[in-house]
Design a protein that fits this description.
3% strand; mainly alpha; 4 strands; two-stranded antiparallel sheet; two-stranded antiparallel ribbon
Length: 313
């Protein structure tokens, strides 16, 4: 029973089922359980009257505690499963909720459908589910850009990264990564409350996504109809992104589709002047979201093949 084999089973189950709403209503989701632990530690350790250096240390303790608790529990579960094919299936079933491939596809497709039909209000409501921007300030091109950027970035940190770490370390690897990613999404913000406390969570997340982000970008570029141009644009523009990692899959996606991404972004409280990625290309149209989803599905198939080869080796 290898980590790659476990991840292949988990990806197959997720591709077929996703995480059914009825199951979520019944038991929730492991990420929400991790989130509850993060919230508990945040309320306990993130004291506003504390010196920033002490808050930074407290945030590091919160991050390490969360990661350690989740990894140890996952290791115990993996130790309890039997060996052989039965154990492989059980371990894959346990890893299944930590892969979000189907959910990502469905959420982005939910943006494409109303946008293609000219239903701007419906598309804005759908895109608000996956990005933090002010949807009322997004036009058709802005919605398409937001959907494709979310698809590219989440393909990396929601699918490739957990499978990558799971393939190396098994169930503890994928569980620890999801703890890291959840920590970053909850406390890894540059706000007054989390600038110091969330510093460690943000840095660990950057480190954990270093290889997976570049692997995701490589897959998108390699599967692009214009591979040479896609690789060239990815290598040129990825470093201009505000994130040290998200620029790689976003630049590869933009180049593969022949559109521009990123650029100025409007949030509820501010507008950020981000540089364009593949800036000489036109804005994406609604049909480009479909093309992006097609590239995403092809990348998932290639990833599954890589996992299969790794499992056999």
């Amino acid at each position: 029973m290898t980590g790659a084999g476990i991840m292949l089973v988990a990806l197959a189950i997720d591709a077929g089922l996703g995480w059914p709403r009825r199951l979520f209503t019944l038991v929730g989701h492991p990420v929400t359980w991790i989130g509850a632990l993060v919230t508990l530690l945040d309320n306990w350790l993130n004291l506003p009257e504390t010196d920033p250096r002490d808050r930074k240390m407290a945030g590091a303790v919160a991050a390490l505690t969360t990661i350690a608790v989740v990894a140890v529990l996952a290791a115990a579960l993996q130790w309890l499963v039997p060996g052989g094919w039965r154990g492989l299936l059980w371990a894959g079933l346990l890893a299944w909720p930590l892969v979000a491939a189907r959910s990502l596809h469905d959420h982005v497709r939910a943006v494409a459908l109303p946008l293609e039909a000219g239903d701007l209000a419906g598309a804005r409501a759908a895109v608000a589910e996956i990005v933090g921007r002010d949807p009322d300030r997004l036009d058709q091109a802005g919605i398409a850009r937001a959907a494709l950027e979310s698809l590219a970035e989440s393909a990396s940190d929601g699918v490739v990264a957990p499978l990558f770490w799971g393939a190396i370390f098994g169930l503890p690897g994928i569980a620890a990564y999801k703890a890291i990613n959840t920590l970053d999404s909850m406390i890894g913000h540059k706000t007054d409350k989390y600038q110091a406390f969330g510093w460690a969570a943000a840095r660990v997340d950057d480190l954990a996504n270093l290889i997976p982000a570049r692997l995701t970008g490589f897959l998108f570029a390699a599967l692009s109809p214009a591979r040479r141009a896609a690789f060239a644009i990815m290598l040129r523009d990825a470093r201009h992104h505000r994130s040290p990692n998200a620029g790689w899959p976003e630049a590869a996606m933009a180049a593969a589709l022949g559109v521009r991404l990123s650029g100025p972004r409007a949030y509820a409280d501010r507008v950020t002047d981000e540089p364009w990625i593949n800036g000489a290309a036109p804005d994406p149209a609604p049909a480009d979201i479909r093309r992006g989803l097609g590239l995403y599905r092809t990348a998932l198939a290639a990833l599954a093949a890589l996992l299969a080869v790794a499992a056999l080796i």
